[in-house]
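Complex record, four chains
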Amino acid sequence: MVRYHKQTRILVAIDCIIFGFDGNELKLLLVQRGLEYEKGKWSLMGGFIQKNEDFNKGSARILKELTGLEGVYMEQLLAFGNVDRDPIERTVSIAYFALIDINKYEKQLNTDYHAEWFPIHKIPKLIFDHADMVKMAKQKLRYKAAFHPIIFELLPEKFTLPQLQILYESIFDTEFDKRNFSRKLRSTKLLIKQKDKEKESSKKGAYYYKLDKKQYATNFHAILNLIPNPGNIIN
Amino acid sequence: MVRYHKQTRILVAIDCIIFGFDGNELKLLLVQRGLEYEKGKWSLMGGFIQKNEDFNKGSARILKELTGLEGVYMEQLLAFGNVDRDPIERTVSIAYFALIDINKYEKQLNTDYHAEWFPIHKIPKLIFDHADMVKMAKQKLRYKAAFHPIIFELLPEKFTLPQLQILYESIFDTEFDKRNFSRKLRSTKLLIKQKDKEKESSKKGAYYYKLDKKQYATNFHAILNLIPNPGNIIN
DNA sequence: CCAAAAGTGTTCACCTTACACCCATGC
DNA sequence: GCATGGGTGTAAGGTGAACACTTTTGG
């Protein structure tokens, strides 16, 4: 096979920023680094791209290996290429972000893997440039969530409007008027009201909703307007 | 120096999707590939990342080498990593997109380099996955342009409202009402009306405007609303 | 009966759109 | 004087934000 001569070949890694929601708070999934150097420090889920593996395959493999999760929503964030980002050897990293419903995988994670959920405001010190990655991922999540119904990837099958609002508030670090929020959400036609209520967190109980998956699929790229005054909130 | 063992090292390239505007039409800058295999075919500006070069340095160097351009607005688009995207040897490519004012560099380009501008609707067949890159770049340009004043990067120092409108229409493949368009633009406070007129393209002449650079710098991330019914237009 | 959270409607200001005519000039 | 493109205003409907009270029920 012909090859390009005199060119530098570089390690290519994938790092996954995994956001989760447990009904109360936005969280981030981290692992303790297994490789030498900074071993034991907190890190994003990462791994090297293999010989015959493209990015999608690679990111799915890494997620599976480190967390057991499959079929999760993932999207490429950005490639990070600073020369010294990994002090051991130059490594270019393709950052992916993922959104998952924490409860769905809780047990599996806690028992089989050494991954841990951290509240988004209490992230420990991370290795390399992972803090930059997280920062960018938060920004991108905000941006997308302001215009697209991407957030539903974080929700369990059944959820309440107060939970949904808490999620949005936790992403945008601000508070919304619940009357307007509820009206906006209802007007998207993405939600199907259930007959039963969630009664853990209040005496009156809040109606469960389900996502209308058909509507969601067709409206995934639609531009919604769920956030008041987006210009003030998004960078 | 310690290194990671048993991992695949891969060529990392940068490819630049360069959009330009000449006052009439949105265009794309292409070169004829200089390397063997598909030599002579049309291609984006690309090159391999070098040993001690990060992405920003690399993209700037490649742009400079192939076009002579410097100080151009560039932004990372996405990393492309399909295993067979370069049939010679596996190469991961970090795609960047750039926006430039064609007239500013026209002479330089035509004489010194073998780059050529193609109208966005008349792009020739491109090598590798460059057509995918262009498609994604167009999408991203639309998306950003719908909400942010990024488009001004494509404009000469002095420009007219009709030119600006043509640019937007050429990006969004649609037509806008000039009264509303003009009002929206003026309401952004980004424009400074000049005393002189452009008289090439009409008898009456159209007033020149300049960008208020201070406003532009502070409002670069602001969310504007320049496009009517964005939900119908953007994917 | 009281505390705590859920649920719901209205008004007003502003923004967005649709739409048509006059202006300036070169030929 | 006429053809060509530039420039402007208004009215109507729709959207988005602000705002407060009633309901339910567990204790």
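Note: Helices of chain A lie at 55-67, 102-112, 130-147, 161-172, 178-187, 213-219, 230-233.
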